[in-house]
Recover the amino acids of this structure.
């Protein structure tokens, strides 16, 4: 690994890149290969590939136990899980969501002819600001989707109070919050339901996958029907539906990765602490903190630039990419600045000043089991030299 002491050591100044291979935000965390291959043998032997097979059922049982929730309804990905949850809840008209999220949160509504109404966020948490949510309520509003961004819980109690006061449905996009808690209670237990993503880049992955967690028996039953074309037994369709099923090989990956989550948390937490220590004392930047009183998965190392940062966000991204460190600008430029929302709501930015500010200032750094402490140390040394301009 190259020495990084002065600015001449940086790739943007002509030095060779720090890494031969790209370092990603979201490199997959993968459990035991042997155990996975063993499952594949079982799947082939049994010839049960899909349609609520034994591995999917076992997976759902274990995910529900892990989150202390009554039902886990496994799906083919987080986006379809969102869509099915939205439909099962009967949302329509307008639904309030943050703009500062992955585009799937908004698309899951728009795809079903529901208008996503973007509310601003709290600059300290990057999650929905309850006062901003109140301002966006109209007679057409039927619900609120909170997002637990970076795995840190949205202001659940405040959002529930608003929902109760106005007769709105509340659900959560918990794509980042696998295994996290709010006031000591596991995510999965709040609102009408909460949606997980098991995409390859997530803390916990099943290649692709997702699930809805809920304590509501009726809602769970409706979603189970909807993910399988509405079938109840052979030849008997009793509900409108789609194909949102998880398949056996995907559940196998989930079972294997479930056994590895403690080591993934440990690796993430260690990386986060090394980044924290390594970047401490630098003016102009701060690292997003996790509340140590809660359960966290530490999946995102989020650096935010202050007004006094001597280097622009895009210069930092450019310098890191030159070193083969593929840091990301999640979730720039905000959903409201992407199509079709940019055209539909050209003035949305006026009510989203904090979203615009935060989206322009965030850099997400590589972590996970594919990034070890030595690599993290190289990354923070590069950032120190870059920000101090030595
Ligand atoms: N709600 C929220 C709040 C979400 O964040 C997401 C997904 C969803 C809903 C929807 O859930 P899913 O339908 O996806 O289950 C990535 C993911 O594609 C997306 O799932 C995720 N959020 C989002 C935060 O990140 P991109 O556009 O950054 O993906 P991509 O392909 O650039 O991947 C990031 C990096 O990870 C790559 O540079 C390389 C590395 N990578 C990626 C994959 C897929 C690997 O090393 N191996 C891989 O297999 O969106």
């Amino acid at each position: 690994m190259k020495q990084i002491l002065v600015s001449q050591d940086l790739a943007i100044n002509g030095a060779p890149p720090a890494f031969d291979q790209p370092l990603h935000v979201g490199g997959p965390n993968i459990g035991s290969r042997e155990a996975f291959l063993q499952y594949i043998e079982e799947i082939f032997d049994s010839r049960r590939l899909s349609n609520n097979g034994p591995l999917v059922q076992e997976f759902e049982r274990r995910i529900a136990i892990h989150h202390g929730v009554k039902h886990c309804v496994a799906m083919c990905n987080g986006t379809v899980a969102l869509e099915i949850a939205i439909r099962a809840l009967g949302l329509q008209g307008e639904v309030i969501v943050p703009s500062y999220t992955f585009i799937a949160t908004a698309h899951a509504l728009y795809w079903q002819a529901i208008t996503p109404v973007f509310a601003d966020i709290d600059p300290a948490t990057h999650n929905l600001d309850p006062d901003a949510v109140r301002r966006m309520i109209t007679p057409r509003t039927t619900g609120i989707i909170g997002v637990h961004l970076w795995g840190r819980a949205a202001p659940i109690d405040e959002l529930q109070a608003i929902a109760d006061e106005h007769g709105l449905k509340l659900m959560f996009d918990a794509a980042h919050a696998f295994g996290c808690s709010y006031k000591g209670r596991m995510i999965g237990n709040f609102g009408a339901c909460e949606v997980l993503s098991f995409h390859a880049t997530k803390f916990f992955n099943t290649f692709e996958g997702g699930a809805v967690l809920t304590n509501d028996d009726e809602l769970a039953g409706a979603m189970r029907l909807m993910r399988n074309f509405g079938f109840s037994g052979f030849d008997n369709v009793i509900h409108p539906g789609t194909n949102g099923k998880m398949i056996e090989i995907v559940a196998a990956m989930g079972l294997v990765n479930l056994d590895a989550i403690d080591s993934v948390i440990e690796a993430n937490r260690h990386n986060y602490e090394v980044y924290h220590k390594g970047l401490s004392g630098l003016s102009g930047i701060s690292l997003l903190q996790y509340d140590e009183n809660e359960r966290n998965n530490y999946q995102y190392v989020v650096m935010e630039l202050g007004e006094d940062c001597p280097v622009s966000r895009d210069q930092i991204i450019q310098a890191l990419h030159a070193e083969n460190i593929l840091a990301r600008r999640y979730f720039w430029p905000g959903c409201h600045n992407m199509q079709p929302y940019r055209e539909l709501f050209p003035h949305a930015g006026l009510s989203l000043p904090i979203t615009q500010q935060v989206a322009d200032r965030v850099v997400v750094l590589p972590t996970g089991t594919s990034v070890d402490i030595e690599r993290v140390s190289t990354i923070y040394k590069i950032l120190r030299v870059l920000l101090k301009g030595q």
